[in-house]
Amino acid sequence: MRSVLTNWIYWEQMKITDFQQYLQKNQKREVIFDFDETISTLLINWAEWDRAVGQVLHRYDPAFVPLGIIEAVQQNIFMQRFGKKFRDDLLHTTCKYEKELVSGHRVNSVALILIKKARSVANLHIWTSNHLETIYPILQELHLDSAFKRMIARGDVTFIKPHPEGFYLLFDENNPKSAYLLIGDSKKDAEAAKSAGVDFMNISSFCEDIG
Ligand SMILES: [Mg+2]
Fold it and tell me: Mean pLDDT in the chain?
């Protein structure tokens, strides 16, 4: 194994071919995948999305000046402050803008191999902050719509990652948390795994076999 620097964090690298063995050896029977930039990358003008979401936040708190990226933690804080009405507004806006702005996707071939390998030894799930309406047609296109036992999307939760709410919607109490593994691409995913109390792997820590 060698380490690689991604998002300013060092990750241990794992060969894709070692993944199935890793799952079995560590009794990982429930593998949760993030969607965007993990299974596939949504091709979307995020700046426009941020602008639209920022306007929703500004409507509820005029003191909030939307500049640049609207962080997930910020959205969760507003959720806590303004409750259901804000949630409905934010859901409506994010769904509308994902629908209008996603122009395609770029599949991650590493994820496809991991899914194929994990399928025979574990239950697979998705935990995403995107809308099911956005990701489901892509999963269908990839013939993966029946690969996942549970899919937790933005509309299923009040608080998005890194809040652990979504994890508990797919958590089966008959399983120990040590049976779960979250695979994602971002610091948010790593923090979500930590707050849920489960192991995390960054998708970029997997490497193709060389030689
Ligand atoms: Mg992601």
Answer: 93
